[in-house]
Write a structure and sequence with these properties.
With about 140 residues, this protein is an alpha+beta fold. Helices cover about 20% and strands about 40% of the residues.
């Protein structure tokens, strides 16, 4: 099954000005705009963040829309960056579809989001470092 051609919600090292933005996104995206993922909290990895699904939380980031001709290539590249393999119980992240709120107009749009896999999320909830602002850039 071919994954849907959705935008990506990025909240850590793929955000503008961060280390992986230009490495992975330059030349592959059509647009990026501020957004908010509700129902998640942000934890320090350390070195990179994890969005942990949790009612009442919010994570700030950017909604990145790939160029049509670059979507499949970008999906593969981001899966590799996040070391994500569909169905692998050893994943640190899971790629899921979630509704993301565009900051500019308050509209909710479906997007791919890499969230902490269940075992990682449990560890972070128990003893991780919460980024209270929900914003990696303000950590």
């Amino acid at each position: 099954m071919t994954p849907a051609r959705l935008p990506f919600f990025v909240y850590g090292t793929l955000r503008r000005g961060e280390v992986n933005h230009d490495l992975f996104l330059r030349g592959r995206i059509r647009s990026e705009e501020p957004g908010r993922l509700t129902g998640a909290l942000l934890y320090d990895g350390p070195g990179y963040p994890y969005a942990v699904e949790e009612a009442g939380g919010a994570v700030m980031g950017e909604l990145v829309t790939p160029r049509a001709d670059a979507h499949a290539e970008l999906l593969v590249a981001l899966d590799e960056l996040e070391e994500y393999t569909p169905g692998d119980r050893r994943n640190h992240y899971e790629r899921v579809t979630r509704e993301v709120i565009r900051t500019a107009d308050g509209m909710s749009v479906p997007a791919w989001v890499y969230v902490a896999a269940p075992a990682v999320a449990a560890r972070l909830r128990a003893r991780g470092k919460l980024i209270e602002s929900g914003d990696w850039l303000l950590r």
